[in-house]
From TrEMBL:
Domain spans labelled N-acetyltransferase: 17-192
InterPro entries, per the entry: Acyl_CoA_acyltransferase, GNAT_dom
Lineage, highest ranks first: Bacteria, Bacillati, Actinomycetota, Actinomycetes, Micrococcales
Protein origin, superkingdom: Bacteria
Native source species: Microbacterium terricola
Name recorded for this polypeptide: GNAT family N-acetyltransferase
């Protein structure tokens, strides 16, 4: 059903079979708007993704329902609204975004879009609504989360969240590592980590995940939601069986994205104990991203975090030699992880807010 108010329409997104399909027009325009919104916020294209690489993320998925609307103003697509609903029994969560081109902000479109977000969440029985946004550096009043780590300017997005009843729960740091310089520091840190991690070996693969690693990798993926510092944000525990690992893999393989998983394996038991993921789209000259990294609780204290990160980056030099930067996100209070990234050479480039509201 479409909602038409004051000339603005929220039209449910048609997800085409391929980006060349006859009905792909709205999807292609949605991706253009997404990339432009991120460029307007951050001033660069590191968050940009081509349509064919985003498409796999919008296909029907047994783990999550994705509701998406395009915002249509005067016949053109000027924004998008998304609400993600995890499907497992008893989930109270909805994760959402509203992204509008700068040219249409400040007209009340965001407020209308937000009504749609809350309505869709309520209709699906969701009461914990959460959302993330980058808040670029700016002068003026600042706000801080209850964690005591990090702060953000009280900008339009922050005012928008607050006006709609949200509290800032956590600040996340977006950092970048220059990949064009020397890898000497990384080589040295890798050697030190190897010494501290006797009894473990490094294993690496790209999707499809080798069958012998599917169970261990799935278990570590499922620990991301339970073990990473979440401050006041709430995450459902996820179950990752072999089929879910295969679905995750296909999001990379389907459109030519490259993922490198570097894991630490306990030699005596064969157990996978730590992992790091590095990824890049099919344009290998674009920025790369460091995605999940985790050391299982029972295996902390052996420098396995440093080991898998450095081993991944050293391999990346050969896999994507033309990529100029590696970008990553960490909670501002996640000192152990930030210590590793800072030692490797990551520097902060921007901050995101993690916002939450509980519906009564
Ligand atoms: C944050 C965002 C969604 C807000 O959307 P928006 O349409 O600009 O929001 P609104 O128009 O409802 O409110 C914005 C401003 O316009 C004012 N406004 C609201 N209705 C208005 C109207 N009818 N006429 C004039 N001004 C109006 C509001 O008071 C508000 O003022 P403020 O920015 O000084 O606080 C939008 O700016 C955006 O897409 N930003 C980039 C992406 C992002 O950060 N998204 C965050 C959620 S994921």
């Amino acid at each position: 059903m479409s909602t038409i108010t004051t000339g603005v329409e929220f039209r449910p997104l048609v997800v085409p079979d391929t980006v060349d399909a006859a009905d792909a027009g709205d999807f292609l325009a949605m991706v253009e708007v997404r990339n432009q919104v991120y460029r307007e916020i951050s001033g660069h294209d590191d968050h940009s993704m081509p349509a064919d690489e985003l498409l796999p993320h919008y296909r029907p998925d047994p783990d999550e329902v994705r509701l998406v609307w395009v915002v249509v103003d005067g016949g053109s697509i000027v924004g998008r609204v998304g609400v993600d609903l995890p499907t497992h029994e008893g989930s109270r969560s909805a994760y959402w975004l509203i992204e509008l081109l700068q040219s249409v902000q400040g007209r009340g479109i965001g407020a209308l879009a937000y009504e749609l977000v809350e309505q869709a969440s309520r209709e699906n029985g969701r009461t914990v609504l959460q959302s993330w946004a980058e808040h670029p550096a700016a002068a003026g009043e600042r706000i801080a989360p209850p964690t005591g780590f990090g702060e953000l300017p009280l900008d339009r997005a922050a005012r928008f969240y607050r006006r709609h009843g949200y509290s800032l729960e956590q600040v996340e740091r977006n950092s970048a590592l220059d990949l064009t310089g020397s890898f000497e520091t990384i080589e040295r840190l890798y050697a030190t980590a190897r010494e501290a991690s006797a009894g473990y070996r490094v294993v690496q693969w790209s999707p499809p995940t080798p069958p012998e690693f599917a169970e261990g990798y799935g278990w570590m993926k499922s620990r991301m939601n339970t073990d990473a510092p979440a401050a006041g944000m709430e995450f459902d525990e996820e179950e990752w069986d072999a089929a879910r690992v295969a679905r995750h893999d296909s999001k990379y393989t389907e459109a030519g994205r490259l993922l490198l998983v570097t894991a630490a394996q306990h030699i005596a038991t064969g157990e996978l104990c730590a992992f790091n993921e590095l990824a890049i789209g099919k344009d290998r000259t674009a920025a790369s991203s460091q995605e999940d990294t985790l050391v299982l609780k029972e295996h902390r204290g052996h420098r396995l975090g440093m080991l898998v990160k450095c081993a991944g980056l050293l391999a990346w030099r050969d896999l994507a030699p033309e990529s100029p930067r590696m970008i990553t996100y960490n909670a501002e209070e996640n000192r152990p992880m930030l210590d590793i990234n800072e030692a490797i050479g990551f520097v902060p480039v921007a901050y995101e807010g993690a916002w939450k509201k509980e519906l009564s």
